[in-house]
């Protein structure tokens, strides 16, 4: 099944960021530095603005810095490919950023008394972690888990649009976006587990439970 954010759109964005990536590499900036800077920017947007109710500013800041996930990947490719530590750092910083975003959303919604919205934010946080874990675990067992309709980019776009619209006065938009995101995230977990199951039926893959 196609991803929400189509491959053609990703390719178009890559062409936009390539000149930026090339300029940063010429200036001596490393992909790892961009990864860390992007995470710090997301933390500022989520915790410094979103959690305090400044949803428009928070959503815009998080969106801009979340795009560094595409930028550092492009830089790594241009410089000869991602290192093992670079891949590890990128995945780890993604989890930090995602936790900050959904933690900030849950904090904000708790402050305005939206308990259902808080529940949706917590489901999104847990399901997002599962989406990433299933893929990582599959790859650790020599299989692939890179399928599903909602990867990290899609998840951040959905919650970002919801936060932006709520900040502009469409109050139900954020809770609706969170419940939609919770549904597609859980569906994506199911897609990936089914995909890995089918692979495991075709090859003898040793492994234990953990």
TrEMBL record:
One of its GO terms (biological process) is phospholipid biosynthetic process. The chain crosses the membrane at residues 55-71, 92-110, 116-134, 176-193. Mg(2+) 2 binds at residues 69, 90, 94. Signal peptide: none annotated. It is a multi-pass membrane protein. Contains a di-nuclear catalytic Mg(2+) center. It is found in: Cell membrane. It holds the Pfam family CDP-OH_P_transf. Its cofactor is Mg(2+). The active site is at 94 (proton acceptor). Pathway: Phospholipid metabolism; phosphatidylinositol phosphate biosynthesis; Lipid metabolism. InterPro entries: CDP-OH_P_trans, CDP-OH_PTrfase_TM_dom, CDP_ALCOHOL_P_TRANSF_CS, PIP_synthase_PgsA1. The keyword tRNA-binding does not apply. One of its GO terms (molecular function) is magnesium ion binding. Mg(2+) 1 binds at residues 69, 72, 90. It comes from the Bacteria. A CDP-1,2-diacyl-sn-glycerol binds at residues 32-35, 73, 77, 83. Its EC number is 2.7.8.-. Keywords: Cell membrane, Lipid biosynthesis, Lipid metabolism, Magnesium, Membrane, Metal-binding, Phospholipid biosynthesis, Phospholipid metabolism, Transferase, Transmembrane, Transmembrane helix. The keyword Lipid metabolism applies. Homodimer. This is Phosphatidylinositol phosphate synthase. It comes from Micromonospora zingiberis.
